[in-house]
Amino acid sequence: MFGCECFYRKKMDLLPLSDPEPFSLPAPLPQWPHGQGFSSGKLNLGELEVVKISRFKFIWSSNLEDKKKGVTFYKPVGIPDGFYILGHYCQSNDQPLRGFVLVAREAPSKSEATDFSTRVTSPALREPLDYTLAWKSNDGREGSLEGCGFFWLPQPPEGYKSVGILVTSSKKPKLDKVRCVRADLTDRCEKYRVMHSEFSFRVWSTRPYHRGMLRRGVSVGTFSCISDSIPGLELPLSCLKNLDPSLHGMPNCDQIHALINHYGPTFFFHPDEIYLPSSVSWFFENGALLFRKGDSVGEPIDVGGSNLPSGGCNDGEFWIDLPSGDQRKTIKLGNLASAKLYLHVKPALGGTFTDIALWIFCPFNGPATLKVGIMNIALNKIGQHVCDWEHVTLRICNFAGELWSIYFSQHRGGVWVNAYELEYIQGNKAIIYSSRNGHASFPHPGTYIQGSAKLGIGIRNDCASSNFYVNSSTHYELVAAEYLGDGIVAEPGWLQFMRKWGPTIVYDSRTELDKIVHVLPVKLQSSVKNFFYKLPVELYGEEGPTGPKEKNNWVGDERG
Predict the structure, then answer these.
(1) What's the mean pLDDT in 457-471?
(2) Which of 230, 355, 493, 518 could in theory staple to 305 by disulfide, Cβ–Cβ 3.0 to 4.6 A?
(3) In this predicted structure, what is the pLDDT of residue 379?
(4) InterPro entries from the entry (predicted)?
(5) Residue 259: exposed, middle, or buried by beta-carbon count in 10 A (0-12, 13-18, 19+)?
(6) What is the pLDDT of residue 159?
(7) Contact 366/309 with Cβ under 8 angstroms?
């Protein structure tokens, strides 16, 4: 399982790099309102107390000819007295230093997470019994160890787990350089993103296998370099688990409002956007109707959605639709002045981070534009549907209240973007670009193709700055934060509507697509036909989306 094949590097390529300064947000953090553990610098996980370390000392770098494609390994520095290293950190050389590892100690006082009658008496942390050499960079010859890297997997005592790997430039580390964690205080870990791959040497970032607002897995910030592992087999590394039932590191109501006031991004819509957002209440007030299966006449919806059926599932018995006539044309255009972001705040990564999902509503999603090489073809109906719910998610580190990344939802997928890759409009407020007609979210202006970049065929997502924008730091409504307890945040009635916000209409898209194919050069027709077959089903008819609470990411983690 442990690939120990080696490769040799010239000594001139192995000069130590200077210890880098970690990335900082554009503006300093404010003094957050008083609370429990949020932004206190330490978090209680039950029997463990952890601190996030973001300052590091160089150990070894892979330093390829193109150094930007290599990775560097660091050990944490500035560790508070009484805390212990759990593993070392790896950073891609083509990015600013932006990461952390957790260090831990036994919590000064026992948490309610463990009942006195069942509390385990063995210590939470123990030294390893030995190390396994997981990988080494030299060619195995004696006398050639200078500038080499050695990767050591701690061998835990029985009943304990390793949560990180140590890196040295020479000999095996002493046993007291790291701690293993008692197994019941850990959770399953998985490889996440490949950071480096060369010969037998592969490095991945890691994350908890179980994620979402109800899960308790905690990322330690370490890496994996275990090679030649069997697919589906669990890593010999674990993550931590938060056993504190109070999740005391999560923000309270005052802190939530302070966070959105400080970090709330501005959403820019394309200058040619026709179908702008509105508030949900404006949508209801201006003629939205509730339909029931078997009834041809819709029922007006109360401004707060109190007459919408709540709970249940998307069973097709009810749906929302637009009014008819001129009123239908008006409501499709939205109302920017009333638009706001709807906030769902929830724990992430075991309550060591806070996810603030910002949902935006548009009464109508416009038709798509197809790009085929240098040609752009405006589609007549394909892609359009009544109502559109889109979102981005701010991930906040609970140790200091620092913006860590933003998730950009893009149709049926999305991507996490690190804080150093964002554009900022003012202070620490990021910019979100909403694509024309489809309202997918992107971090930068430009044209993004949903399809085949190789063939140059796909659906266009055009993003640009304009005078059409919504500032979420001032135009928002907190609609859910379940972890605060019942009744703390009053959820609006419309949030409980689990059916579709729009009718299902099937039409003959094939006729429109065939017309497009026939006007194309012969050499492109086959490729375009194949692309059409791979288009999402929703593009072949009109199908309204379900509301935010019906989405998988309401409880689960974001995709990507």
Answers:
(1) 95
(2) 493
(3) 82
(4) Vps62
(5) buried
(6) 97
(7) no
Look up residue 526 and give its DSSP letter: H
CA distances from 329 to 83, 325, 336, 450, 504 (A): 63, 7, 16, 28, 19
Q: What percent of the chain has pLDDT over 90?
A: 70
The two tokens of residue 381 are 């109906």
**Collapsed DSSP state (helix, strand, coil) of residue 525:** helix
**Per-residue H/E/C for 306-353:** CCCCCECCCCCCEEEECCCHHHHHHHHCCCHHHCCEEEEEEEEHHHCE
Q: Is residue 454 classed exposed, middle or buried when 0-12, 13-18 and 19+ CB atoms within 10 A define those classes?
A: exposed
Q: In the β-sheet with 299-300, what is the strand arrangement from edge to edge?
A: 299-300, 289-292, 318-321
For 282, the enclosing helix (H) or strand (E) is helix 280-285
Burial zone of 446 (CB within 10 Å; 0-12 exposed, 13-18 middle, 19+ buried): exposed
Q: What is the mean pLDDT of the chain?
A: 88
Paired tokens of 224: 């994996």
Tokens describing residue 273: 């956007």
Say what angle helices 522-533 and 509-518 make with each other, to 10 degrees: 160
Name the β-bridge partners of 396: 354, 403
Alpha-carbon torsion, ordered 231, 232, 236, 239, to 10 deg: 130
Alpha carbon 425 to chain centroid, angstroms? 21
Give the SS3 label for residue 277: coil
Structure tokens at 229: 């592992």
pLDDT digits (tens, 9 = 90+) for 368-388: 888 888 878 888 777 899 999
Token pair 């040295």 in the structure block, residue: 168
Distance from C-alpha of 396 to C-alpha of 544, rounded to nearest angstrom = 31
pLDDT band, very low/low/confident/very high, at 6 (cuts 50, 70, 90) = very low
Cβ(163)–Cβ(239) below 8 Å: yes
The whole-angstrom separation of Cα 196 and Cα 225 is: 9
Residue 10 pLDDT exceeds 80? no
Q: Is the pLDDT of residue 165 over 90?
A: yes
In terms of Cβ atoms closer than 10 Å to its own Cβ (0-12, 13-18, 19+), residue 523 is exposed
Contact between 74 and 88 (Cβ < 8 Å): yes
Would strands 180-182 and 125-126 be described as parallel, antiparallel, or unpaired?
antiparallel
- On whether the CB atoms of residues 346 and 483 are closer than 8 A, the answer is yes
CB-based contacts of 329, cutoff 8 Å, min separation 6: none
DSSP bridge partners of 2: none
Mean pLDDT of 246-255: 97
Total residue count of the chain as it appears in this document: 560
| pTM beyond cutoff 0.70 | yes
DSSP letter, residue 213 = T
Give me 377's structure tokens: 């073809």
CA distances (Å), origin 52, targets 85, 274, 419: 11, 46, 17
